[in-house]
Design brief:
By secondary structure, this protein is α/β, with parallel strands linked by helices. It has 13 helices and eleven strands. The strands form two sheets. Strands 8-7-9-6-5-10 form a six-stranded mixed β-sheet, sandwiched between helices. Strands 3-2-1-4-11 form a five-stranded parallel β-sheet, with helices on both faces. Helix 3 links the parallel strand 2 and strand 3.
Length: 341
């Protein structure tokens, strides 16, 4: 399975709309042109000043046909967005009980392209948003959490990576979901249960197969005793089974017990996920981030992400070192998430 081509194929079929807030960023405007050229979106919106973006497009030979340019400061939606942002934030107060937001401040903050883009998604003016070629992950998450919000039933936003091992022995045709590797540093049992459910949804949306989830630990089925980190994973499993009883999941399991049937038979005999695992849930961000990078570097795997999970509508972050093609692929993945909702 060629994951990138599959994502582009599905994005073409879904024909969703996307906003790229960093319109005046060189790689971003070139990626926008490629998204349109490849027919991946129904519409692409770039945020920024029209004259500046037109100059950039000319410099990099980008055809702006099929691309909408919006300057947040001059948009017809500015007042509507400012009022909505005020309503979302008006109950927030400082340590002395004073309101943190006024209508004037809310309107002013909508001049920020990241927040304006998030509001476009929140208000249904765009299906998805991709940003981060210039901005930090913290900025992206802040806009997402305050405006797009998390999905109903969860307070947790997390992430996953799609790992292409290029070996059909693992996961689904060599592809696995690793989560969470980028957002939640030390999830508690409730957050970990949310991450597992969200990763299962990502597996279904992005890999096109039913998820089979393993909650990872240094312990398998109690072998680690009463260590708090082991108990956390055990409790997360109970919560997942209550929240999502149809999800195929087991834990806590060491990684070899999760992935190798012969080891599963010894360490977790009778496990319902034996030989089927396509989604790995790490107990914390240390393990997740280290784990995916080890597999990427030592096994020569490709890692696509981080793909954000748990938001009411799909948004995605980029590495500031991303390439033009990275932006295009991330856009395709995010639009596939929207199409699968």
């Amino acid at each position: 399975m060629d994951f990138v081509q599959e994502m582009k194929k599905k994005a073409k079929e879904y024909q969703k709309t996307i906003v790229l807030p960093e319109g005046n960023e060189e790689r971003t405007i070139q990626a926008a042109g490629k998204i349109v050229e490849e027919g991946l979106a129904k519409n692409v919106t770039l945020l920024g000043k029209k004259a500046e973006l037109e100059d950039l497009a000319k410099k990099f030979n980008v055809n702006l046909s099929g691309i909408t340019i919006i300057n947040p400061e001059e948009s017809e939606w500015l007042e509507e967005f400012g009022n909505e942002y005020f309503e979302l934030r008006k109950k927030k107060v400082d340590a002395n009980g004073n309101p943190l937001m006024s209508r004037e401040k809310a309107l002013s903050e909508m001049h920020d392209p990241m927040k304006f883009g998030a509001m476009m998604v929140h208000m249904g003016k765009a299906d998805t948003m991709v940003s981060g070629a210039r901005s930090s992950t913290a900025d992206m998450l802040r806009a997402g959490l305050t405006i797009v919000k998390t999905a109903p039933g969860t307070k947790t936003a997390s992430s996953c990576f799609v790992i292409d091992t290029h070996n059909p022995k693992w996961g689904h045709e060599g592809l696995l979901i690793f989560s969470d590797c980028a957002v939640v540093p030390d999830p508690d049992e409730n957050q970990l249960s949310d991450i597992a459910i969200q990763a299962g949804q990502s597996c279904k949306a992005l890999l096109g197969v039913d998820p089979c989830v393993a909650l990872l630990s240094f312990s398998s089925k109690g072998s680690g005793g009463k260590d708090p980190s082991v108990l956390k994973v055990q409790e997360a499993l109970k919560i997942v089974k209550e929240k999502a009883p149809d999800l195929l999941i087991d834990g806590e399991l060491q990684s070899d017990a999760a992935l190798i049937p012969e080891v599963t038979a010894k360490k977790a005999p009778g496990s319902p996920i034996t030989g089927k695992v396509n989604t790995l849930i790490f107990p914390n961000l240390n393990a997740g981030n280290i784990g995916y990078k080890l597999v990427q570097r030592l096994a020569g795997a490709d890692a696509y992400g981080p793909v954000l999970q748990g938001f009411a509508k799909p948004i995605s972050d980029l590495s500031r070192g991303c390439s033009i093609e990275d932006i295009v692929v991330t856009a395709a993945i995010t639009m596939v998430q929207a199409g699968a909702q």
